[in-house]
Amino acid sequence: MDFSSIVFLFTFFPLSFLFFWIVPKKIRKVYLCIVSLIYFSLASLQSLPILIISVLFNYFFGRLVEKSRHKKLFMVLGIIANIGLLFTFKYTNFMITNLNSLLKLKIKAIKIILPLGISFFTFQNISYLVDIYKGKIKPDKNIINFTLYTCYFPRIVNGPIMRYESFINEISNLTKPNLDKVYDGTKRLCFGLGKVLILSFVVGNIWTQIIETSNSYGITVLTAWLGIICYSLYLFLNFSGYIDISIGISKMFGIELPENFDYPYYSTSISEFWRRWHITLGSWFRDYIYIPLGGNRKGNVYFNLMVVFILTGLWHGSSWNFIVWGLYNGIFIVIERFIREKAFYKKIPNVIKRVFTYLIILLGWVLFACNGLMASIHYYKYLFGLKPVPDVQYSFRYFLTFYNAFFIILSVLISLPIKGFITSKIKNKKALNIVSGVLAVVIFAISVVYLINSSYSPSLYAQF
Fold first, then answer.
1. Fewer CB within 10 Å: C terminus or N terminus of the chain?
2. Which tens digit of pLDDT belongs to each residue from 167-198?
3. What are the structural domain ranges in the chain?
4. DSSP secondary structure string for all residues of 99-153
């Protein structure tokens, strides 16, 4: 049950929100916990036992880490168990496939259904155990608090990844509804729906048509570049749109979630891009992988960076595509770190750095978008004119209709920090707030029209 589905928007969420403010304050956390488990069950009932096992295991292990004389042992065992759970469901068949290929074996693949949100709640629980061991937090004796931390429905599927201390502070005082927060949250929800159901759907559809055409008939160089540009917009709008919805819904409940995007395509370097893209995942890898490896101070900083980005690739999927994609980003991060203090690099205008950074990210998305390394290589050949198509069935102009061009341009504008520039120039903030509210209503209405017309754009990151 995606946030952009009719059932969620017009039944589940309105009823959940209404009863949240009706129930007594002292049971609101219990209520939210029940609602979250119901949402998870409706979205993926077969995943519910895995979620409950993870909750109970980490709840009791957190207490063991604090009380035992062997704190480090229990923390390590807890981390191994969490990684083992993730590995079992996400990487078992990947390992079987590679063992079969390498050793000429015939091990049959196992029918495994990837539990919903497992990458997100597993990482959160690892950070919980580590923070207890380091003395940053105390294990919560209230299992309702911990269950809600693990399965809070606005963020369990798409993130953002949140630290236990921050989340507990947010749910410690669920008072009466703050009308300003409800208003702001509603606007954020509507704008997120616009990204997902209108913009993401249109540019994603262009990419789908182009990749299908490339597989069946072949495409020109210009069409190939148009396709991967549309995919880059689709990925950003889909993921950030669902994050907007998550943040908006949560704000309406009085709970603030951290931002996860900060106009990443406006970055002047790959390093900056990764500080702006999936911010909470990046900070998790920094705090729990990069710094423990030695960070900038111990060991080989380049090795530490490569480990982080290879693991980032693996987190996104059990495929060599993702591993190579992580390696690809890591190589450019290392190169940047090596040249960033050089005089020639500092003299390069920011506009050139932004274009060059986007180009590097764009080429990397090919590995993210295509189904397998050979498919990626196949698409790279189209991009660089290494696979000429003598008889093109569908020309560049076939895909770049006026309708498509309009939404591509609009998607580009939404992806750049133009909104902040415009709002900073408007002095009458009250009028701006009203206008943005009216715009949100219009976007919601158009989004519903698109939704009714089957413009379903499921969450890409739900699969991770």
1. N
2. 999 888 887 778 888 999 999 999 999 999 99
3. 6-176, 181-269+340-463
4. HHHHHT--PPPP--PPPTTHHHHHHHHHHHHHHHHTTSSPPPS-HHHHHHHHH-T
